[in-house]
Amino acid sequence: MTPKGTKFLFGLSAFGFIAALVYGLGTGGDLIGVISAGYSGGVGEHAGYAILVALGVVAGALGVMMAAFRDADPASVAQIAVTESLPPAEPPAGMSYWPLVAAFGVAIMAVGAVVGPGLFLLGGVVLVAATFEWTVRAWSDRATGDPEVNRTIRNRLMYPIEIPAIALLVIGGVALGISRVFLALPKEGATIAAVIVSVVVFAGAAVLATRPKINPSVVSGVLLAGGLAVLVAGVVGASAGERDFEEHGGEHTEETGEHGNEPADEDGSGAGESGVTDEEGA
User: What distance in Å separates the CA atoms of residue 180 and residue 225, rounded to the nearest whole number?
Assistant: First the structure.
């Protein structure tokens, strides 16, 4: 019996490879090049093709690993061990939000396919990271019969990786989205928008700081809504284009004389039209 997690990962791997094939052909690649991963021919747009191929490879590798460990499924383990005593199966300790994050990454990729490769690359990174986190969460929830021990195992494995990565991803995504908005707005509008965003962020941080026992689901929902708002605003700003910037500094003027009123003569004397030459003065 193949565990459900393994089936999902193999299906996700197949989706990654098929999507890479379609994306490569749709962006100008040829069939032989796309199938051979660029060994003999073009693959189309490189960034998107590489992300989808990486998704297929990572999901396939995780599927093989889950198949080897039987996805920590008690029924599968008992079937291999040929025993009737099943280890206790504990339900997940809490709701997992990684499926929502994965869907968010797919949405970013869909928008990036229209807007540009940068946004498509960001969505691919979010999708791969969410898939990995989702897999580790599903494994750790069934590692032992104690939910607290499972949570500790998961945190020790993932905190050194996910905290710096998520911080970098969030900072980069927010900076990119807001910058598109500021560049699309007029100069005065960009200043007003910057003030409004600063006030909203400060007010939200103050509310979270004064209420440490707030429901984590509420915090996750607010952050997800804020990320979606930044994404939509960034897409709208990128579609509108950048505003016209004034070029400062004019063309260089001719060299002036000593007093700056008349062009200097070739000999540097600086005499103008009304000036008197040495010979005339004599």
Answer: 18
Non-local (6+) Cβ contacts of 188 within 8 A are none
Q: Which helix (H) or strand (E) is 219 found in, with range?
A: helix 216-240
pLDDT at 71 over 80: no
**What are the helix and strand counts (H, E) for the chain?**
10, 0
Q: What are the pLDDT digits (tens) for 138-186?
A: 778 777 777 788 888 888 888 888 788 778 878 887 888 888 888 888 8
Rounded CA separation 33/41 (Å):
4
The angle that helices 117-140 and 46-68 make with each other, rounded to 10 degrees, is 10
Burial track 52-80 (b if 16+ CB lie within 10 A, e otherwise): bbebbebbbebbeebbeebbbbeebbeee
The predicted pLDDT at position 181 comes to 81
Cβ atoms 21, 9 nearer than 8 A:
no
Cβ atoms of 130 and 105 closer than 8 Å: yes
**DSSP one-letter code for 215:** -
Average pLDDT, the chain: 75
Distances (CA, A) of 188 to 35, 179, 182, 183, 238: 51, 15, 10, 11, 19
Q: pLDDT (tens digit, 9 = 90+) per residue, 195-249?
A: 888 888 888 888 878 877 777 777 778 777 887 888 788 878 777 777 766 665 5
Give, as one character, the DSSP assignment of residue 70. G
| CB-based contact 227:173 (threshold 8 Å) | yes
Q: Give yes or no for a contact between 37 and 43, defined as CB atoms under 8 angstroms apart.
A: yes
Write phi, then psi, for 256 (nearest 5 degrees).
Answer: -105, 170
